[in-house]
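Anyone up for a design puzzle?
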């Protein structure tokens, strides 16, 4: 899953992930972010087009620490990451061992959707939160129906 890995296995894994999510009725897309710094240098309008605020269900996938992803995945996002170092084996073995699998990312996606839907209900049931959300240009009608996968992150 690392963004710099353009191997056939990398794309095959993402293809299987999207196939499984779409088969479950979850709209999903892949957003690749090979350089977060370059992304942040883009106009806000472009950033919003790539990562719409109204889509809160997101999963980041990083074969490294997730710290830089929290600003993108938000409070309903779920990172799939490697928060330690020191293991030695082939990438295929390590990815499986540390949860970089279709099954684990689908599990993270379901968790993010659950969190986004729960937050939506809380907003809809609180008039002050609903108004603040509206003023920010966000919608409260099920923002968790689209998932983006990138560096992958899943929206």
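Challenge accepted. My sequence:
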């Amino acid at each position: 899953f690392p963004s710099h890995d353009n191997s056939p296995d990398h794309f095959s894994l993402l293809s299987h992930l999207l196939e499984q999510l779409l088969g479950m009725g979850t709209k999903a897309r892949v957003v690749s972010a090979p350089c977060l710094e370059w992304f942040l240098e883009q106009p806000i309008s472009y950033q919003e087009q790539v990562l719409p605020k109204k889509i809160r269900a997101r999963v980041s996938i990083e074969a490294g620490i997730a710290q830089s992803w929290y600003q993108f995945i938000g409070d309903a996002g779920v990172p799939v990451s490697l928060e330690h170092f020191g293991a030695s084996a082939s990438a295929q073995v390590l990815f499986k061992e540390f949860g970089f699998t279709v099954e684990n990312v689908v599990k993270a996606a379901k968790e993010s959707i659950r969190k986004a839907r729960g937050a939506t209900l809380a907003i809809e049931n609180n008039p002050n939160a609903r108004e603040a959300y509206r003023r920010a240009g966000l919608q409260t009608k099920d923002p968790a129906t689209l998932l983006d996968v990138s560096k992958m992150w899943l929206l």
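A detail worth pointing out: The chain is about 45% helix and 15% strand.
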